[in-house]
UniProtKB/TrEMBL annotation:
Stored SMART domains: UDPG_MGDP_dh_C (SM00984)
NCBIfam families documented for this protein: NDP-sugDHase
UDP-glucose/GDP-mannose dehydrogenase C-terminal domain segment(s): 307-412
Organism this protein belongs to: Haloarcula onubensis
Its EC number(s): 1.1.1.336
Listed name of the protein: UDP-N-acetyl-D-mannosamine dehydrogenase
Keywords associated with the record: NAD, Oxidoreductase
tRNA processing as UniProt keyword: no
Enzyme class: oxidoreductase
Family per record: Belongs to the UDP-glucose/GDP-mannose dehydrogenase family.
């Protein structure tokens, strides 16, 4: 079986390796020559070493060949980005269209095109189907077209890629069966067939919307708990003792490139997204709430030095896309965050420390330099490194003693060390 994977990002490249490691001949296609060159010379560069080995094992061999342009294949998998265009309030499908335009002239009767990129319901049948038909010689009935969403969790991509169940939905029964055959051979999870492509597209968006809304209820309950003088997390643990209750973790908001945008795709052709939109707003508002906690604890932010621990969007990853921590740092550093004092304006001195992030546009400090002389320490990401911190050593380095813990990393010992901890 020959498989072309279009788009070699964090989903496409591991997916290409999956099929190459399972006996298929795979063409990894990416329109960026630089990316291909880097892959050829340096190999995979994920933060998951097992995944790098898994990719590197087949990269550059006959099993996984890198190409800049589409080639003929039994299967074409589309794994390109579909960012949300906030100005238009719609998904940007230009990369999906471009991939389909490239595939169309190579398509033979009986070949199968599978979309993996997250898209608004209807995109596979309409946008991709029409683009393939318009740019090639084949009628829709002669090739197979299906949607099969990726569900890998950044941080455990390899395990999830091989182990997760998959949903497949074709534009007809034949397409569903063809897509099912491909994945059934390669993954350990079950394959669930959807009645059509739009249902599969919807199911993917429903998964991330469900998670986003559940984090929103956790965040709202955490704020309400604090209003009642109740510390949220112990209260949540108790509530979760009930067999049908499963509150998620409150935090400084929801980042990454999936949860903050996927729910918005559902609003593209529907006027019934009230709770979904509100959940988004609650999660986005958490950055401001953490700032309020900090302001309340310090009195005034003017001229204060604040150590921010964590810039990544979640624990143990290096990714800062849509990160609440990044937004928090940017707003603290903004001129509006400067508070007028007698001598004029005095900015907040923000020192960010993140042991995972390397390529940030934000200046990064070592742990000890960030803490030195700090008035406050704010935990914005739940990296493992932070749970091991010794509160005695922290209080020693700091000037003042304020800790805002937006991730539930501190326990009683932080209070006992003399720190004024504000916990979300
Ligand atoms: N978060 C909380 N509280 C929680 C859980 C998460 O505040 O209890 C925050 C995280 O800190 C982070 C954000 O939510 O900022 C998202 O993190 P995540 O680990 O929930 O999810 P992602 O965005 O890394 O990956 C999600 C996953 N979707 C689901 O779990 C339903 C993953 O399986 C998908 O493949 C991925 O989106 C995707 O590509 O769509």
């Amino acid at each position: 079986t020959t498989v072309s994977v279009h788009g070699l990002g964090y989903v496409g490249l591991p997916t290409a390796a999956l099929f190459a490691n399972n006996g298929c001949t795979v063409y990894g296609i990416d329109t960026q020559p630089d990316k291909l060159e880097t892959l050829r010379t340096e190999g995979a560069d994920f933060r998951e070493s097992e995944l790098n080995d898994y990719v590197d094992r087949v990269l550059g061999t006959d099993a996984l060949r890198l190409r800049e342009r589409p080639v003929q294949s039994d299967y074409h998998l589309v794994c390109v980005p579909t960012p949300f265009d906030h100005e238009r309030g719609a998904a940007d499908l230009s990369y999906v269209r471009a991939a389909a335009e490239g595939i169309a002239p190579k398509l033979r009767p009986g070949d199968t095109v599978i979309v993996e990129s997250t898209v608004p319901p209807g995109t596979t049948a309409n946008v991709v189907g029409e683009t393939l038909e318009r740019n090639g010689d084949l009628l829709r009935e002669t090739f197979n077209l299906a949607f099969c969403p990726e569900t890998v969790l950044p941080g455990s991509i390899l395990d999830e890629l091989r182990g997760n169940d998959r949903i497949v939905g074709g534009i007809d029964g034949e397409a569903t069966a063809a897509a099912r055959d491909l994945f059934a051979d390669a993954v350990d999870g079950d394959i669930h067939t959807a009645p059509d492509a739009a249902t599969a597209e919807f199911a993917k968006l429903a998964q991330n919307t469900h998670r986003d809304a559940n984090i929103a209820i956790a965040n709202e309950l955490a704020k309400v708990a604090r209003d009642h003088g109740v510390v949220p997390r112990p209260a949540f643990d108790l509530a979760n003792e009930h067999p049908r209750v499963d509150l998620l973790h409150p935090g400084p908001g929801v980042g990454g490139h999936c949860l903050p945008v996927d729910p918005l795709y559902l609003g593209q052709h529907s006027d019934h997204v009230q709770l979904i939109e509100h959940a988004r707003a609650v999660n986005d508002g958490m950055v401001e709430y953490v700032q309020e906690l900090l302001g309340d604890a310090l009195g005034s932010l003017a001229g204060k030095r604040v150590a921010v621990f964590g810039l990544a969007y979640k624990g143990n990853v290096a990714d800062t896309r849509n990160s609440p921590a990044r937004r928090f740092v940017e707003t603290l550093a903004e001129p509006t965050a400067k508070v007028a004092t007698d001598g004029g304006e005095s900015a907040v001195d923000v020192r960010v420390h993140d042991p995972h992030v390397t390529d940030a546009a934000v200046d990064l400090w070592s742990e000890s330099a960030a803490l030195a002389g700090a008035d406050a320490l704010v935990f914005m990401t739940d990296h493992d490194e932070f749970t091991g911190l010794d509160p005695e050593a922290v209080v020693e380095r700091m000037d003042d003693n304020v800790v805002v813990d937006a991730r539930g990393l501190t326990d009683e010992s932080w209070h006992e060390a003399g720190l004024d901890v504000r916990r979300l």
